[in-house]
Amino acid sequence: MAANKITAYVLIVVKGGCEYSVLEEVRKMKEVKESYITYGGWDIIAKIETDNISRLGYIVTKIRQFPGVERTETLICM
């Protein structure tokens, strides 16, 4: 990871039955390096790498707009 890169994990909760359609949309985003369906309190986890915090905010906002997404939590790595 380059020194100026930002890595974050976005935890996503979706409406029942929307997991795979949301995962498909998340995986289309170029900054998403990995993403998986999970079991437990969160339905999907996505690893994001980007160059700046503004771009990260844009990506998270786009994810929140996908049909079926109920909420997210973003964990920014240090």
What brief labels describe this structure?
78 residues, alpha+beta
What does this protein look like?
This protein is an alpha+beta fold and 78 residues long. The chain has helices spanning 19-27, 53-65; strands at residues 6-14, 32-37, 44-50, 69-76. The protein has a four-stranded antiparallel beta sheet, covered by helices on one side. Strand 2 and strand 3 form a beta hairpin. It is globular. 19% of the residues are buried. The mean pLDDT is 95.
Task: Compile the SSE list and pairings.
Blueprint: E1 6-14, H1 19-27, E2 32-37, E3 44-50, H2 53-65, E4 69-76
Uncertain runs: none
Shape, principal axes of CA atoms: globular
Annotation field: number of helices: 2
CATH topology: the name is: Alpha-Beta Plaits
Determine the fraction of residues in helical runs and give it as a percent range.
25-40%
Largest sheet: 4 strands, antiparallel
**Gyration radius, to the nearest Å?**
12 Å
Query: In the residues, how many domains can be counted?
Result: 1
The CATH C-level class name:
Alpha Beta
Order of helices and strands: EHEEHE
Strand content: 35-45%
The H-level CATH homologous superfamily, spelled out, is: Lrp/AsnC effector binding domain/regulation of amino acid metabolism (RAM) domain
The overall pLDDT, averaged over residues, is 95
Total beta strand runs: 4
Return the structural class.
alpha+beta
**CATH architectural category:** 2-Layer Sandwich
Within the largest sheet, what's the order of strands?
2-3-1-4
Give the N-to-C terminal Cα separation: 12 Å
